[in-house]
Amino acid sequence: MTGTIKRVALTHIQIPLKEPFRISGGEVAIKDAISVALETDAAVGLGESAPMPASFGYSGDTPEGCWDDLCERIVPGLLGWSFGSIEEIAARAEKAGGSRFAVAGVETACWDLLAQSRHETIAELLGAAHSFVNHQIESGLAVGLYPTVVELLKTIETHLAEGYRRVKIKIAPGRDIELVRAVRQHFGDELPLMVDANGAYTREDIGLFRQLDALDLLMFEQPMAANDLDGLAALQAAVTTPVCLDETADTLEHTADALRRGAGRIVNIKIQRAGGFGPALAMHDLCQAHGAACWVGTMPELGIGQAQGIHLATLANCKYPTDIEPSARWFVDDYVVPRLELTGPGLFSVPTRPGLGFQVDPAKLRRYQVRQREFTTHTSA
Ligand SMILES: [Mg+2]
After folding, report:
1. 157 and 76, same structural domain?
2. Whole domain around residue 75: which residue ranges?
3. 270 is catalytic
4. Among 114, 143, 216, 316, which residue's CB has the most CB atoms within a 10 Å radius?
């Protein structure tokens, strides 16, 4: 059993990106995250809710909405609670209501507390049913859209020196085959390469993907809209490159439906979008049952959120490099201790300390704080 939760601290922070991140649906320059700390007498469980800003057009789960859900619906009921199993966490998370990004903040902190109480890592707690835990996981480089091909190539070149295990470029209508050909020409056919369209194409574009099919890509990530399962299935039937479901993989039911209908053969699992470790694990197992490989994507989150992905990526059916990248890749700073750093060429070590294996730097929380709220057993209002 964990100890009784006596204090919950929420801190909304904003850390600027080093450069704006552009995809087919919008761009973002500042990363919002809500740090969640659940305290017992024995331990602190850490979580992160990492929604995108409303302006990004990616998701309806905004920082303001998540903050309100956490303060009003999710956190107050946690005080005085203790628990001893992932099933108890799942039951409470299901009852909580509110945005899945908000629920993920608390659910992941609960997993941290439970793993610590069992003297296990979160990877071990996740993998208990799988008897297989990797000690290092692979990091893939993701780059956004750039105004020119030269800037795209330069960005890839700069970062590839760190040994990333694959490169993912964003594409959008009119900025696709030319970019892929340029990357192939510059870096060669051996580079593990994939494209992410964030749903920007339709069935009219299957001819384009047939052309891309000849360029030996690892996968086409979300070529068509999240709900266009017929379009995705028609595309998958027309090409040999696997289609990867990302935005489509928002819920277990939707993902199962998409896999049954042949809309893709790979799934990008995001802990935030799934609503925490429990739903992410369920999605991993669903993919395995359907013979679909998966991998761990990011929003990207700040350090605590990305560290969670390192644990998830140890699972056996996570067969492609993650989108998890070092703290210094996207953000001018990070609030996680230690900062996320590659421990080998394109590799992250999986922490061996109990729980998440990462801490929060209180000075950084204060420095980047937008608002803070504490709940205690004495003043829960
Ligand atoms: Mg994607």
Report:
1. no
2. 7-118+362-376
3. yes
4. 114
Burial class of 149 by CB neighbour count within 10 A (0 to 12, 13 to 18, 19+):
middle
- Indicate whether 202 belongs to any domain: yes
225 CA distance to ligand 1 middle (Å): 11
In the structure, ligand 1 is a single-atom ion and the residues with CB under 5 Å from it are: 196, 221, 246
The reported pTM is: 0.95
CATH number at residue 20: 3.30.390.10
CB within 8 A of 367, min separation 6: which ones? 333
Please check whether residue 28 lies inside any domain of the structure: yes
Q: Does one domain contain both 111 and 254?
A: no
Q: What is the pLDDT of residues 115-174, one digit of tens each?
A: 999 999 999 999 865 545 568 999 999 999 999 999 999 999 999 999 999 999 999 999
* Preceding peptide of 147 cis, ω within 30°: no
Rounded distance from Cα 57 to ligand 1 centre (Å):
13
> What's the average model confidence in pLDDT over 211-229?
98
Residues 205 and 345 in one domain: yes
Residues 351 and 239 in one domain: yes
Is the residue at 146 inside a domain? yes
Cα dihedral 322, 67, 110, 298 in deg (nearest 10): 0
pLDDT band at 381 (very low <50, low <70, confident <90, very high): very low
